[in-house]
Design brief:
The structure holds 2 protein chains of 2 kinds.
Chain A: E1 3-5, H1 6-16, E2 21-24, H2 31-38, E3 44-47, H3 51-65, E4 69-73, H4 77-91, E5 96-102, H5 118-122, E6 128-131, H6 138-150, E7 156-162, E8 171-173, H7 193-205, E9 209-213, H8 215-219, H9 223-233, E10 237-239, E11 254-256, H10 264-272, E12 275-279, H11 285-288, E13 299-304, E14 318-321, H12 324-337, H13 344-360, H14 375-385, E15 391-394, H15 398-406, E16 415-416, H16 427-437, E17 443-448, H17 449-452, H18 459-465, E18 470-475, H19 480-489, H20 505-511, E19 515-519, H21 522-534, E20 540-545, E21 555-556, E22 565-566
Parallel strand pairs in A: 2-3, 2-4, 4-5, 5-7, 6-7, 9-10, 9-12, 10-11, 12-13, 13-14, 15-16, 15-17, 17-18, 18-20, 19-20
Antiparallel strand pairs in A: 1-8, 21-22
Chain B: E1 2-10, H1 15-25, E2 32-37, E3 43-51, H2 54-66, E4 70-75, E5 81-92, H3 97-107, E6 111-115, E7 119-126, H4 128-138, E8 143-148, E9 152-155
Antiparallel strand pairs in B: 1-3, 1-4, 2-3, 5-7, 5-8, 5-9, 6-7
The chains are: A alpha/beta, B alpha+beta.
């Protein structure tokens, strides 16, 4: 059998797992691993400028491709810098394997240089973590890490490797397991047939049904099946923030996003529904508003791979634990045999009602007549220039909600945002991660001047690896979402939400060898975007000045029901 | 309502911290907790007593089950079960009370396991209520120190928690 050092085993395991790229930053505890990395060329390494960016790159790659992203960081600050990215992946159920160096075993617990108990630190934000106690365990543990990260409800897994486990001169037998079995971990592979049959009967009997399609359908690659079900039953579909693109936005059956900044028609339809079929959505607080007042007439069929997501916030009438793909496939099979369909008259009147709701608001916003852009206009223009085909990687704040509302996604896995954790600084490295793997695709980072400054050091990484992403910085000179809440709840006392001393973004981008365009008037927008997207090989930073007074609407009234919304600054439902 | 949840988990470093971490992270309540290896050295058995509404208890069992190292668990309070807790209690036992304390220990079927001229150390097993009742019967003024193991539980009859 082949004899390898622990360090070589780490890299070899990644090769055998089929990993093409890893993202990381070297340091003392991982020097042996970096040396093994240097001596091969199958696994390519992207050197970021801050470990947080490594995790977001890996995360976004996983979101776009469905395969786990891999990160390599050193002990102590290397690992703690990665924590925000790990937590981001955890909240959105993204498969990721993070290999962190650790001080030598005999120093653990002695407050050694660059020692942090990263197993303890990361525990609440990982699906699982492993410590290597013997170099012989490296291959099997890495295999387990990939298996756990990518099966069941996916999530990040940390593997902590003390430096003495990777000593180059200590060689051990290496073999990479083909399969792994863990007696304590057996994720569901299919739903309960009896429950599925019950669900289908309820769907057929429903008069006002809505499908709520969430990140579990997008991540579970079950969008085609979900769409087939929706079309077969002529059911309206609302896609959550994590589910955007899971059902084509251009389809008449799409209602938009539910929740705090959901569309009027989606929130109204859910509120009045008699049946909600949730496919991989978890009824989080930004969707449900007050759980006591949530959808009073609806019965809930909740399909989720994670039993703990079911009846956590909203009680399910029919819980189904299983992957959305297999559950929905089974539903379609039953509908193939059972020719019963929902009552056509009831559905027609339901659709009629929904169309009336659509007319009421329909994403309408006022434009300025002095040329000062509204952020919504920017998103619509980006959609136009990219033909709605781009990967849109968003940061967090108002621009994120505008992008979610106005970039109408027709395909899944194109909308990449930090939905659960709401991590500012996510968008730019995320765009880099996607661009690296899909060099021919248009990759857009929608950001704000606040979020962007949280990871702008990655300009440098983009120069090094030639990552020509297009950065749409919606610059309102303030932390827009904070400012909106201050406007609405704190009599416009803008405490610390004003971004003073902004850099000259053009000069900043140019300093790293990138292109930049500043847009201050509506008339400049389309020409600037066309110019930017024509520069295929250049990172272009678009500093687009917009109306700082704009708010995101609709916005649900706090502690109320789904249908209680502000539709604009003066009008309430 | 009070529940006793028995958990079989991999006997690995860090497994216990995941369970304890879960309870604090998700704002669940722990009343007692005990843990020890089983006859199979690769498994430890943990018993936790907790309180909460049905919805909270459902979340606790689901979240515990989700921990990768948890192999199996059962909510013992769902069925007939036996619960025991062991207490060692050090009591002032001087003068006229010495005999009275001895009698009370006998009534509760405890054992005096260590004796000095002024102190009895008593071992007592039973459910939580019995241990509480013993302390009440003795009177708190005589109690010098107590240590309780927390609840262990097992289902009655044929039902077995094993893998």
């Amino acid at each position: 059998m082949e004899m390898l050092s622990g360090a070589e085993m780490v890299i070899r395991s990644l090769q055998d797992e089929g990993v093409e790229y890893i993202y990381g930053y070297p340091g003392g505890s991982v020097l042996h691993i970096y040396d093994a990395l240097f001596q091969q060329d199958k696994v390519k390494h992207v050197l970021v400028r801050h470990e947080q960016a490594a995790t977001h790159m890996a995360d976004a790659y996983a979101r776009a491709s469905g395969k786990p992203g891999v990160v390599l960081v050193t002990s102590g600050p290397g690992a703690t810098n990665a924590v925000t990215g790990i937590a981001t992946a955890y909240m959105d159920s993204i498969p990721m394997v993070v290999i962190s160096g650790q001080v030598m075993s005999h120093l653990i617990g002695e407050d050694a240089f660059q020692e942090t108990d990263i197993l303890g630190v990361s525990r609440p934000v990982v699906k699982h973590n492993f410590a290597i106690k013997n170099p012989k365990d490296i291959a099997e543990t890495i295999k387990k890490a990939f298996y756990v990260a990518s099966s069941g409800r996916p999530g990040p897994v940390v593997v902590d490797i003390p430096k003495d486990m990777t000593t180059p001169t200590d060689k051990f037998e290496y073999s990479y397991p083909e399969q792994i079995e863990m007696r304590s971990y057996n994720p569901a592979t299919r739903g309960h047939s009896g429950q599925i049959k019950k669900a289908v009967d309820m769907l057929v009997a429903a008069k006002r049904p809505v499908i709520l399609l969430g990140g579990g359908t997008v991540g579970g690659r079950a969008c085609d099946e979900a769409a087939a079900l929706a079309r077969e039953l002529n059911t309206p579909v609302s896609t959550t923030l994590m589910g955007l693109g899971g059902f084509p936005a251009s389809d008449r059956q799409w209602l938009g996003m539910p929740g705090m900044h959901g569309s009027y028609e989606a929130n109204m339809a859910l509120h009045h529904a008699d049946l909600i079929l949730s496919l991989g959505a978890r009824f989080d607080d930004r969707v449900t508003n007050s759980t006591e007042k949530f959808c009073p007439t609806a019965r809930v069929i909740h399909v989720d791979i994670d039993p703990s997501s079911i009846s956590k916030t909203i009680a399910a009438d029919v819980p189904i634990v299983g992957p959305t793909k297999s559950v929905v496939t089974e539903m379609l099979g039953l509908l193939g045999k059972n020719k019963a369909r929902p009552d056509a008259d009831a559905l027609a009147s339901w659709w009629n009602q929904i169309d009336q709701w659509r007319e009421r608001h329909g994403g309408h916003y006022e434009t300025n007549d002095n040329g000062l852009l509204k952020p919504q206009q920017v998103i619509e223009a980006v959609h136009k220039v990219t033909n709605g085909e781009a990967y849109v990687c968003s940061d967090v704040g108002q621009h994120q909600m505008f992008a979610a509302q106005y970039y109408k996604f027709d395909k899944p896995n194109r909308w990449i945002n930090s939905g659960g954790l709401g991590t500012m600084g996510f968008g730019f490295p995320a765009a880099m991660g996607v661009k690296l793997h899909y060099p021919d695709a248009e990759v857009v980072c929608v950001t704000g001047e606040g979020s962007f400054q949280m990871n702008l050091q990655e300009f440098s990484t983009c120069s090094q690896y030639g990552l020509p992403v297009k950065i749409i910085c919606i610059n309102n000179g303030s932390l827009g979402m904070v400012r909106q809440w201050q406007d609405m709840n704190y009599e416009s006392r803008h405490s610390q939400s004003y971004m003073q001393s902004l850099p000259d973004f053009e000069k900043l981008a140019e300093a790293y060898g990138h292109e930049a365009i500043t847009v201050t008037h509506e008339s400049e927008l389309m020409p600037a975007l066309e110019k930017a997207f024509a520069m295929k090989d250049k990172l272009v930073f678009l500093d687009i000045h917009v109306d700082a007074a704009e708010h995101v609407y609709p916005m649900q009234v706090p502690k109320a029901s789904m249908r209680d919304m502000w539709l604009n600054k003066t009008e309430r439902t | 309502m009070r529940h006793i949840i028995a958990v079989l988990m991999e006997n690995e470093a860090g497994a216990l911290s995941r369970v304890v971490g879960l309870f604090s992270q998700r704002n669940f309540n722990i009343e007692t907790l005990n843990v020890a290896p089983t006859e199979d050295p690769t498994l430890s058995r943990l018993t936790v007593t907790t309180t909460g509404s049905d919805r909270v208890i459902e979340q606790i069992t689901k979240q515990l089950n989700k921990l990768i190292e948890v192999v199996k668990l059962v909510d013992l309070t769902d069925g007939d079960h036996i619960e025991r807790e062991m207490m060692l209690i050090k009591l002032k036992a001087a003068g006229q009370h010495r005999d009275e304390i001895k009698r009370t220990v006998d009534i509760f079927r405890g054992q005096i396991v260590d004796v000095t001229s002024s102190v009895y150390t008593v071992q007592l097993a039973g459910d939580q209520g019995k241990l509480d009742a013993f302390i009440n019967a003795i009177g708190e003024t005589y109690v010098l120190e107590t240590v309780r193991t927390g609840v262990s539980g097992i289902a009655r009859g044929e039902k077995v928690l094993s893998i």
